[in-house]
Amino acid sequence: MKTIDLTPYKNDSDVLSTLKTLQGIIVQGWSWYQSRKSQKKLISILDDILSDECVLLRNVNLPKAGKPIPLVLVAPSGTTVINPKDKKGFFRAEGKKWEVMGQGEEYKPAFNNLIHETWVFQKTIEGYLKRHNFKAPNLSGALIFVSTETHIESISPIVKVIRADGIKNFARRLAISKPEFTDLDFRNLIKLLTNPALPEKKKAPIPEEEPSPQAEPFRFEEKLNDLVDVVNFSRKEWIVIGILIIFVILVLIALITLILLTQ
After folding, report:
1. How do residues 114-144 score in pLDDT, each as one tens digit?
2. Are 167 and 49 in contact (CB under 8 A)?
3. What are the helix and strand counts (H, E) for the chain?
4. Phi and psi (nearest 5°) for 29?
5. Residue 86: how many CB atoms within 10 A of its CB?
6. For residues 244-258, b (16+ Cβ closer than 10 Å) or e, as one string?
7. pTM higher than 0.85, yes or no?
8. Following DSSP, what letter does each residue of 3-31 receive, concatenated?
9. Of 196, 86, 201, 228, nearest to 147 (Cα)?
10. In whole angstroms, what is the distance from residue 61 CA to residue 85 CA?
């Protein structure tokens, strides 16, 4: 099995140094460090069963995701988003609920819902791939416990819940399952997860604005010519008519002025 570690908190030898470990804990929190230890235990088991046809990605950091996704196992038969844990005790997984046995041997909701956490990791991967118009075959989520002191009662949980004694069987089923990936899709998926980026938004073309009609300046000569075309008078006849109209208007003004003065 090929393993690709994508965490930024490691040195060149791919082994977390003390300084890098402290940096990761400060930035990502204590749960990140615990997850790293659980990953290491799980990888040692899977490595003995899965061939190099399978690729395991550690700490996949997707854009705008709340926190890194611990493990994504890409096998020829499908893709599994894995949330590894090293917890001891008695637990119950039912649907979306994750419960822990308390005093009086009664189950009560756990402080951290690991079922929901795993489901969110799975949906985060699905949503990211959907934005790239990529559909990974047989994509599922798995909550895997590496401690043999973990006891779980499973009642149709929304993600796979695998105890330590079931890890090898889980790996064997992946190894013998029918391949669903094409070589190209397999490589494209690895590329999308190892070099994560959101797809570029297509810019809508800016519509060209039609030139607004401009008011044409008033031209007496053109208007007069238009009027000549409508009414069957010659140009000279229209000029005479215009002069007569002006003369009549002046006579009327003079008469009105005389009437007003004689009153």
Report:
1. 999 999 999 999 999 999 999 998 999 999 9
2. no
3. 7, 10
4. 100, 165
5. 18
6. eeeeeeeeeeeeeee
7. no
8. EEE--SS--TTSS--HHHHHHHHHHH-HH
9. 86
10. 19
